[in-house]
Every structure is written in structure tokens, then in C-alpha cells.
Amino acid sequence: LGEYFYETVILYGIGVLWFLSALLIAGIIAKALIRLSEKLFPGKGIGIVIVIIFALILFATAAALGTAIRPWLWNASALRFLYYPLAALLKGASMTVFVIFGCFIPESFEKIKEKLGSARPYAYGTLALLALVLLLAVYFLSMPAGEIDINMLKFGNFGLSLITGLLGFAGVLMLSLLLEKVPVLSGVLAFFGRSSLLIMVIHLFIINLTRLICSKISLPEGLIPAVTIIAALGVSAGAAALLSRPWAALMSRLMRR
Fold first, then answer.
1. pLDDT at 29
2. Does residue 194 carry a pLDDT above 60?
């Protein structure tokens, strides 16, 4: 219990909650870098370029140091407890580049949407082809990139893992522009998009609770996986429906430039 408390206080995170801690640290670093660039280079594009370059350096540094300190996690000495704060910082540092792209992309995204609104039909075909090419590139690059697990500071080939992540980011962005034109589907996906972080935080608790209840009522083993999935999706989505708007407003304030 004491170790769990320590992991929480120093923002290492327990279980799936590691992502929230890392996102918080990445958001703080990203906001500091953006504000510094705006002061040093007001109204100049060079500031954005420098911020992105610095974030890329942070990613590479975090990947290299993460590989070096990972063995500390299984060390019985004080190194194990030094690992947690260092790992928390490195996880946040490695995610900073993606948070920065997330800060700058919305403006460009809205401009693309405006242009698509008056574009000819073949523009959507071009967009679909680009999305397909990018996502196929992600699929084929993910194999040589190796195992990627930011929580465990595993970056595989960190150059390829970074490129794969950014290509996937761009591919999903283009795909979302197309799916927005499908009324019912776009509404469902928008809901899960707004609520994904909240669902991620809730779902593991629901899964464990469902398994516990299933074991108490002696539910047949073959039914437990299906019941667990349905409960996790249903309860998490229901909770997200109630909390998604205040949650989204909170995250928007935290990540706002």
C-alpha cells in the first residue's frame, strides 16, 4: 500500500492511471515550451519549429534514458524507488511532442474542413487514399519499430516508433474528416472520442468488479469474458455520457494554450 501511495504522489501512476500522470506532465512541459517560444519569437513561425525540434529531442532523450533505467524497476535496492520519479518524468517528456502537435493541429484542421466543404467530390477520394496510405505505412512500420510501451519505457527503434506514431496521428485525422460525413457514425465516434480518456480510467475497475461478481454468482466460465466486455463497455460508456461534458471542459482548460 505504501508503494502504491508513493507511485501516486510522485505521478508515476498505478495501472492504467499512468497515462493521466504522463499526460499531465507532458501538458505542463508543452505549455511551458509554447509560452516560452511566444515570448522569444512573438508572431513568428520559427518559434513553432523550435518548439517541435525541442520536443523531438525530448522524445529521443526519454527513449534513451528510459532504456538505461528500466532494469532499476526490478532492483531491490533504493534504485527501485528512484526509478518511479525518473520514469514519470521520462514518460511525460516522451509524450510532449504529441501534445504539442495536438495544440497546433486544431487550427489547421478547421481550415482543412472549411476547404473540404467547398471542394469537389474527388477531393474526398484523394483524402481517403492518403488516409489509407498513411495507415498502411503505420502497419508495415510497426513491425520493424519493435515493441512500444511508453508505460514501461520501451520504445523499440525509437526513431521509427516516433515516425509511426506521427503517421498514425495524421492518418486517423484524415479518416475522421471522411467519417464526419456519415451522420450517425460520426455522432457515435465523436462521443467515444470525447470520452475515451474517461472510459480508459473507468473500464479496468468495471472489469475487475464484474469478474468478482461473476465468481460470486458462479457464472459459467465461458460466459465471463462476454459479460465482462459488455459490462465494461456499457457501464463505462454510461458513466462517460454523464461526465463527458464536465470532463472535456476540464481537459480543455488544462491543455489550452
1. 92
2. yes
